[in-house]
């Protein structure tokens, strides 16, 4: 199903997107060496409830995974990249953490992900990988204009990632979003321009470039959810929910500091 939002629904989507962004930034600020992933999940649960919103993850049970997911946020560390299930793990200085969050408020969902380094230490290549996903996301958003096609977004994202030397997996990618978290159209992180669904105002998309440092192959943890790089290399993931408007793409999940600019 491809859903086109009305102006009233789009206004509600703006509020949901801002909530997702604010929760992610609050969690980033609290994620330090010594933080347990289960605490991150509990903090997320509290913030969602305090906002009068609903988790998109707790009861999520798609054909993949071993559902329902049962947690409020995806927490992926180092070689984990997607659907990271919170578990009893204490973050260490230099860990590369990805937080992926989707909530519904007033009937509209928003979805966003951020990757960042925990503490003060860096590992060669980690920051570059994170920046590559952010640049690819920027390129995808720039391509998301009325009349363009999904393939134009996919091509823009994949071109940036490949130019920086990263393999691209197209098994999981971006997606439509609206009254539910996952909708058509699928937005692969590589594709051919001029192909696929034509964009029109009112369409919401969650664009999410993600990469693994030296492979495009995934393996699944025993939990049935957490996806890791097959080689054990580090990974990164950036995601925004955007709305197609008459003037181009509006980013709905910007942090508060950027929303004020």
How would you explain this protein's 3D organization?
By secondary structure, the protein is of the alpha+beta class. The protein has a single domain, classed as Creatinase/methionine aminopeptidase superfamily (Creatine Amidinohydrolase, Alpha-Beta Complex), CATH 3.90.230. 28% of the residues lie in helices and 24% in strands. Strands 7-6-8-13-14 form a 5-stranded antiparallel β-sheet. Strands 1, 2, 4 and 5 form a 4-stranded antiparallel β-sheet that branches. This is Methionine aminopeptidase. It is an enzyme of class 3 (hydrolase).
Helix content: 25-40%
Count of the separate structural domains = 1
β-strand amount = 15-25%
Q: Please, what is the oligomeric state?
A: single chain
Protein name: Methionine aminopeptidase
Binding site for a divalent metal cation 1: 100, 111, 239
GO molecular function: initiator methionyl aminopeptidase activity; metal ion binding; metalloaminopeptidase activity
Subunit structure: Monomer.
List keywords for this structure.
5 helices, 28% helix, Creatine Amidinohydrolase, four-stranded antiparallel beta sheet, 261 residues, alpha+beta
Task: Present the secondary structure layout.
Elements: H1 7-30, H2 37-50, E1 54-55, E2 74-77, E3 80-82, E4 96-105, E5 108-117, H3 126-143, H4 150-163, E6 174-176, E7 183-187, E8 204-207, E9 210-212, E10 218-220, E11 227-229, E12 235-237, E13 240-245, E14 248-251, H5 256-259
Antiparallel strand pairs: 1-4, 2-4, 3-11, 4-5, 6-7, 6-8, 8-13, 9-12, 10-11, 13-14
